[in-house]
Design goal:
The structure is a homodimer of 343-residue chains. An 11-stranded mixed sheet of chain A has the order 3-2-1-4-11-10-5-6-9-7-8, with helices on both faces. With 343 residues, chain A is of the alpha/beta class. The first copy, chain A, has 14 helices and 11 strands. In chain A, strand 10 and strand 11 form a beta hairpin. Helices cover 49% and strands 16% of the residues of chain A. At the A-B interface, helix 9, helix 10, helix 11 and helix 12 of A face helix 9, helix 10, helix 11 and helix 12 of B.
Amino acid sequence: MSGHIIAVDAMGGDNAPDCVFAGAALALQRHPGIQFLFYGDDVRIAPLLAKYPALASVSKICPTAMVIPADMKPSVALRQGRQSSMALAIDAVARGEAACVVSSGNTGALMALAMIILKRLPGIDRPAIASFFPTQRGESVMLDLGANAACDASNLVQFSVMGAAFSSAVLGLTNPTVGLLNLGTEDSKGRDEIKEADGLLRNLPTLPGQYKGFIEGNDIPAGTVDVVVTDGFTGNVALKTAEGTSKLYSHFLRQALQSSFVAKIGYLLARRAFDSLKIRVDPRRYNGAMFLGLQGVCVKSHGGSDAVGFANAIGVAVDLVQNRFNDTLRDRISATSSVSADS
Amino acid sequence: MSGHIIAVDAMGGDNAPDCVFAGAALALQRHPGIQFLFYGDDVRIAPLLAKYPALASVSKICPTAMVIPADMKPSVALRQGRQSSMALAIDAVARGEAACVVSSGNTGALMALAMIILKRLPGIDRPAIASFFPTQRGESVMLDLGANAACDASNLVQFSVMGAAFSSAVLGLTNPTVGLLNLGTEDSKGRDEIKEADGLLRNLPTLPGQYKGFIEGNDIPAGTVDVVVTDGFTGNVALKTAEGTSKLYSHFLRQALQSSFVAKIGYLLARRAFDSLKIRVDPRRYNGAMFLGLQGVCVKSHGGSDAVGFANAIGVAVDLVQNRFNDTLRDRISATSSVSADS
């Protein structure tokens, strides 16, 4: 087989397995040359794959009998889920049969299994979940989005290095700027671990001139920095709050435009503008969260994503593989660790 | 003097003292009968007050020589700021000369001075900052918004009781629902203190049937619950992220509507609808954060608020005074504490 091989957990997510194949077919159009290994119940997925002849010609089904349920605890998934579609898809990356794995399944289980099967990169204490989002200046990256409810200063420093490398690989930025999320920009504010991380980052030679200090919540959508670093609890809340606020604004806009006959006419005339706005804030565009800090590329697609969202998640994985992202990350982390060890 | 007397720190905030008087004049139109004590530099503020004869006729200037700077640390404000316009306005409430105090000044200093001068309500370990915000279902309350960067389970339980009382007083809800912000709705997720608070709240007779368990970031703008409870770090980030996202959406909308001639015509026709939308998401509407848990009503206006925003902050203070909010809160806290002591 030539080209990159993507291992896909075909059974994870609310709309699996149907949307998985529609999404993969779309991704194949965008990235000709990629190939797929689909892990799942072959009785269910074989007819779905057959609907897409071009996709079927570059794919192989790997039959699995078990699916990790959406509400299974990570610890249970580790004990009982090693023969699941999710775990076996990750195994393919660990064995070098696939270049990356994509799943819409249970996030906690995926992270736990990926940590055990792929192992962490040397120098990384805690892997993090990173994703990008729209800003006034373009797109930015935020991490951690939920892998670690609490973090210490050295976790936050590692997230900064990983986030900057991710931003370079996916968004193509040469020297992305990094900010540490806090409840104020004054030095005296915030939690102890954040103040400590701020001190470490100011003197970190791995991010020369890139660290911009504390930022606040409003800086996330403003795009003040290219990489927003925070613990998984705060990042998760911030990302979901932004998604919800965007929905609220759409809701208010719809109500306003239906409030009078003249407003409705105005809406009809400006319809294409509204459609372009919808596309711009469409969360599917930003689907595909990367598990950073593992010895392998593992991308999580949103559990509720449809075919378009799933295709975008595959696109993120392909970008990371093509850019040899994990090699770059390994070098940067190694440079950061040796500095820390020296100091 | 008849009616409620408002003590105003006339020197705090980016647009003080000018917008303070324009705002107070507007508040007086909305709440006839209220009176004012203005604390500040009388040479500067006397001519400003003279511009509003109706306001001047129900106001008194209390000359003060010192102003707390926006960047002064709370600990320094406590040592050096006791003769400031801010501290002396709070003193007026402590002495019973005013019913409440309103300031646009340094939040940390205001909280520190108010805690020392007004003292906490019995049974409250940590006062919290609460404010309301627009949702798909109307308006909700969130706390803490930044007074406490880290909180334990009992702080979060007290915030829940205070937030529910605040929602009843300002929004008129009889049995407001309460949710605890987390990074997932499953019992197994989140930080230890949040899981512990969840257990305590499920059995709290002071909030019968009102506690709805964990909520996520997207539930804040969705209006899933009437009262969102979280620590001050997360609340601060979530509120500012929502404000920033609203601005981002407006920015995208503006760009979309200027993208073509037809879109511009559509915009002109739907202009009144857009104006109504602007009013609906106007952060000035939601200005006025209450410091809950003190023996006195202390309302913080946004540092950058203009006259309209300041008038709204005064309106929040008037609502709380007229509803005898602190008496109700004292009773509820006392009921909660006795339950906790019994158990």
